[in-house]
Amino acid sequence: MSPGVVDFLFRQLVAGEPPEDVQWRKEGSVLGEQPAGAELARRLAEVDLESLTPGELFDYVRAAQRLGVWADRLREAAVALYCSPERMA
């Protein structure tokens, strides 16, 4: 774990709080609930991976996978449009 995560977990322990950051849940959609799209891409790009707990890192990876599937669908739709007979005329 990074020093930032260790520091965070220590402060949570001393304060008697759970070993996870629950404040971010109050600020909007959690990554696991954020729909795939541009906003999810922006949020993923802004995350400092070294500061994530193992559980948050797992959620990050799953969100990145969803974003990848979404991007693949966009690419496939663009290729299909590019290769359509109407475009060749």
Radius of gyration, CA atoms, in whole angstroms: 19 Å
Span between termini: 58 Å
- How many E strands? 0
- Largest sheet, strands/sense/barrel: none
Helix content class: 55-70%
- The number of helices is 5
- Give the count of structural domains: 1
The ordered string of helix (H) and strand (E) elements is HHHHH
Strand fraction: under 5%
Mean model confidence by pLDDT:
82
Give the low-confidence spans.
Answer: none
Structural class: mainly alpha
Overall body shape:
rod-shaped
Structure in words:
By secondary structure, this protein is mainly α. The protein has one domain (3-88). It is built from 5 helices and no strands. The chain has helices spanning 3-15, 23-26, 38-46, 54-82, 85-88. The protein is rod-shaped. The termini are far apart. The mean pLDDT is 82.
List keywords for this structure.
single chain; mainly alpha; 89 residues
Structure summarized in a few sentences:
With 89 residues, the protein is an all-alpha fold.
Structural topology:
Elements lengths: L2 H13 L7 H4 L11 H9 L7 H29 L2 H4 L1
